[in-house]
Structure formats: structure tokens, C-alpha cells
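Hi R.,

Here's the chain you asked about this morning:
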Amino acid sequence: MSLKMPDHEVHAGVVLVVDDDLASLSMLCDALNGEGYSVLVARDAAEAIQRFEMTLPDAVLLDAIMPDMNGFDLCRHIKQEPAWAHVPVIFMTGLSETEQIVHAFSCGGVDYVVKPVKIPEVLARLAAHMRNANAARLARQAVDIAGMGIVLLDRQRRISWCSPRADHFLKHAFPQIGEEDEPVKWLRDEQSRNALRTLPGGRAIQAQRIGQAEFGETMFLLRELDAQPHRPAARLPDTPLTPRETEVLSWLAKGKTNRDIADILGMSPRTVNKHLEHIFEKLGVETRAAAAALASRMHYSD
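And the predicted structure, written out as C-alpha cells:
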């Protein structure tokens, strides 16, 4: 099924509805379109994954019981993909037993509604979780745009959360299979308050312990440094891009066209072009290729 666009100009976000019940799909699509959402639909887990690969939704309404891969396994799969993990998943289920509800949360869901769903309740919960997810996304971007990353270790000394930039740093610092526990050992070592992990090419990752967060978590700031101080790092232009410009530049660096970017971010191609004009001016470049190349150096394409 194709993307359904609302009849009016308001764009509240993109919602993926995954349900094998056509009547339920139709009811939810009508309600969501009426609220200004753009709606993607999928009848099973395979179609849902295809939708994610095509367009990143802002939220997912997910039926728990489906043929082949069920909703719990699909949610777990979504949360294992770093580029998708931030998307809030709300379960729709006729299962109201405590065990099933706990299972929904344990595999990464943020909420659940019991079928038959009550549309006002679904809309209220969806709007709240999308606001929270968007605020968290902007906070992560603020840290990552500055070229740094944040990692949290929980009470059990496991990584409970890391920003996309920090995830990138750790994957490059610990690339070998079997090293899953090495980043945690490195971070929790008392000597790692300002520890360095050398990378190929004369670079290094620094971990700085910056204190306690909520729920007994320990927070670390990660940044990339030049491991050879006598070699000055390449200077990059001052780029005070807005969060929206950052998103546009990121998709540009991935080779997306204006039309693609417009579909992904829920805006018109003309608006994308206007963002690109501002981006080119701020970066001091004149072409898409030059902007994409600079974005790669600045890690916007990760």
C-alpha cells in the first residue's frame, strides 16, 4: 500500500500502522489523516521493514499478533537498528494479561492500547510519545552536531543509552567481533575518566566521565581527538545549522534527491530547496557535491 497524504496542509508527522486487519487499518488511517498525519501502512513484519527502509516514520502503531514474525519480534528488530531505534512503538493488542504487557515494554515498546482501540485514546497517546521522541531527538542532535557523543552506563554497568555519534565512535574504536564488552570495560575503568582509545589514521576517542545521571546512571562524554598533537586537525567552517537544516544535509550526504528528502521529512521539494540555499550559504559552497563532501568530513552522513 502507498503513502496516504492528508487533504490539508498541516503535517503532524509520519506514522507507520502495522496490522493484518484491513478494517482496523482503514479506521486508523482515516483517523490519522484527519489529524494531519501522513500514514504508511503494512500488513505484516516484512512490509513494515520495507517501509522503514524507504521512509523513516516518526512513530509506529503495531499489532502484536501477526502471521510469521509477530509484533514483539518486529519491535525488537526495529530497536536493534541504530538508525531506527529512536522511533516510538505503540502496541495495539487484544492481549491484556500482565505478562503480555510486560513483554511489549521489554522488547522496546513505549506504550500499548487494547483492541478494539479507542481512537481518541490512540491519538492522545501517539501525540504525547511523538512530542517526547522529538524532544529527545533534538537533544541528541544538539550533542552530536557539536562533534561529541553521550554514553550512559546503568547500575549494572551496562550501556543503557548512547547518542548516534557516540555509537559511531564506539563501533570504530571496538570493531572486532567478540569485543561487545570491551567498550563497557573501557568506560567503567577508573582510569577512563579521561581515557584515550587510539584509532587508525592518527585519531583517538576520548572518554570523559562527567557525573551521575538519573536512575543511578553514569554519564560519559565522548569526543574524537587528534592523537598526534603536532599535527593540526583540519579546520571546518563554522556551521550554525538549524536542526531541520541538519536533517536535510544528512539526507543530501546520503545521495537523496530533493524529492526523496521531501518525502522523508514530510515537506515540499520547494522547502527542501530553500533549506539547501541556506545550507550552501552557511557552508560556503555552491554545489550539492561540495556540500555532501563537506558533510562527510563533518560526520553528518553517519
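Residues 39 and 273 are 24 Å apart (CA to CA).

Let me know if you need anything else.
M.
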